[in-house]
Structures are given as structure tokens and as C-alpha cells.
Amino acid sequence: MSDKLKVGILGATGMVGQRFVTLLENHPWFEVTTLAASAHSAGKTYEEAIGGRWKLDVPMPDYVKGMTVHNVADVAEVAAGVDFVFSAVNMSKDEIRAIEEEYAKTETPVVSNNSAHRWTPDVPMVVPEINPQHFDVIEHQRKRLGTTRGFIAVKPNCSIQAYTPALAAWKEFEPREVVVSTYQAISGAGKNFQDWPEMVGNIIPFISGEEEKSEKEPLKVFGHVDADKGEIVPFDGGLKITSQCIRVPVLNGHTATVFVNFAKNPTKEELVDRLVNYTSRAAELGLPHAPKQFIQYLQEDNRPQVALDVDYEGGMGVSIGRLREDSIFDWKFVGLAHNTLRGAAGGALECAEMLKALGYITAK
């Protein structure tokens, strides 16, 4: 009998669910025992439920092909066979909020890729390298839910991963005004070029809801846990972010161009030093999916590039380049992160690894 924690994947047939399936193959701590999706897929084997809809450029792992898919709505049945679940369900936000709380109330921790609970005040929204202390709010959430081990934790939006790490590394210099444009891969919409041929040779200058997430979510990441209120209070200092989000004909990898003003006056050498020497609790804990070096700084004028850099540190690292002084703002730079690894399933998996390491996720 394996001593690994038993994991369920909610929304296992979608693109993020597929990414969870591949990342969890032979994981040292976790073992997938349950797959759940919509009623349409329930009762079929995973291979049958996927049909011709496997979206990744790596093959479907053999270990899941014959597993029977459960109905995600059968909460008690799914929860009975797992220690915790990853959530990547495709529902309305109200439905996601409700079903994730329903799972949590069965004493099953939920680590969610979805956005529905990102602004629930007592739900931690964590990048493990930046704000793991926000997991402290879980004790307050459990009181609200009436649970002893069940809770919900989420990861932030994929679009902020390409620039928020740099702002975190430069916290001592007090970033103030930030203007960011993100150039986002089509896999962020759960699609590939076969699904979305209109994207070939095209850009779309609108992604619904994305600009608000890009502007607001870093403020929650940089916030703090208010023990008296039992919630996370977003950062209320001088930092303001404005953004534009554009869909571009790239399969994987979100690129950001960023202009930033600081309250203090760092030199380029200081900025680069803080990037390359950035350390985190995630690396110290030796989490299986924590990059050894979270941020790499590239000196070449034509980097970072998706083709060359998106898979840095197995897709879990962040690449920064083209740092230079600006004629209007203080500094400008370009960032790149893998949106379905660092930004989605991989980020959620690393959150689960940290939650296990910190004792929040245990065997039932």
C-alpha cells in the first residue's frame, strides 16, 4: 500500500486537468486515485472521456487511461476516496464557489486553479515563492466552514506570473506606478491551434476579465493576514497597476512588457542582484516542483523568448530581461512565464506541496 497522499482531480478532462494528470505521474508525495468531470464523462474510462480532445504536446500517461471518471457533482463519493483534491472545473463562478466549499466541508482540502474564490477574504491566494505566510488564514477559514481539516486554497491568475515575481524581488525599493501589457498564449484559454485556427497569424486585444485580474491580484498577493478580521487584507500602500491583456498566436507562455516607477532610486546593478539572488521558503523546503532558481535574468537584447525560455526550470521558473532605464518611467523590462505550468496546474501543485510540507494537508 502506497504511503503517498491520495489525490482527486476535479475537471480532469479539461486542458488544466490534463496538465495535472501529466504533472502528477510518478509524483514522490501524491498519487492520483480519483478523476472527476461532468456528468457527460462520468462512467467512462478517462481515455474514452477524452476521446480526441487530448490537448497537450506530451502523450496521455498510461496510468490514467483505464481509470473510471466520476461525476464531479457526486461530492461525497469523490471525497471518500481521496486525501485532497485539485480543482479545475469548468462551471460558472457561483457554481465553482459552491462546489469547492461543498468539498471542503467533507474535510477534503481543495487546491484550486479557478478564480472563483480568489477574492474570498479568508481564502489564501498564494505564489509559494512570494507569500506562503498567507496560508496562516486557513485556520480562520476553517472556523467559518466548521471544518477541522477541510479548506480552500487558490493560486493567482496566470497573467501576473511574468511580472509579479520581479516586483516581489524589488519590494525594498517600493514599486509605485506599474504599466504592464501581457501577451498571452492561447493555452490560457484552454485551447490549441486545432481548436482555434482563427488565432494563427492573429492577435486579439481583449481577454474577458483579464485586465482587472492583472491589476488587482498582485495587491492581494502583497497583502497581509489580519488575525483580528480573520482575512487577508490587500496591500494598501502606494502601488498602482494598470494593464492591457492581448491574446497572441503562441501555444504556451505569457510575456509581459512592464514600466515601473519606484519610491526609492535603485541602480540597475541592485535590481539585477535582487532578481538573481531571490530566495524563498519554497526552495528551502525542497518542494518537488519548486525551481532551484525562481528568477533568471537574461542579458541578451533579444531575451526572454518563448521558444528559448518558456521551459526554464521545467516551466516553473520566471525569466526577466531587457531591464533598462526609461524616458518617462524609472525602469522597464520584459518578463516571461509558462502559463499552464508556473501559471496554472504547476503553480497549484507547488501550493499543494507547500501545504503538505507545512502540515495543512495530511492523510485522512
UniProtKB/TrEMBL annotation:
InterPro entries: ASADH-related, Asp_semi-ald_DH_pep-lack, NAD(P)-bd_dom_sf, Semialdehyde_DH_NAD-bd, Semialdhyde_DH_dimer_dom. The active site is at residues 158, 254. GO terms for biological process: methionine biosynthetic process; threonine biosynthetic process. It comes from the Bacteria. SMART domains: Semialdhyde_dh. Keywords: NADP, Oxidoreductase. Gene3D superfamilies: Dihydrodipicolinate Reductase, domain 2, NAD(P)-binding Rossmann-like Domain. One of its GO terms (molecular function) is protein dimerization activity. This is Aspartate-semialdehyde dehydrogenase. It comes from Bifidobacterium samirii.
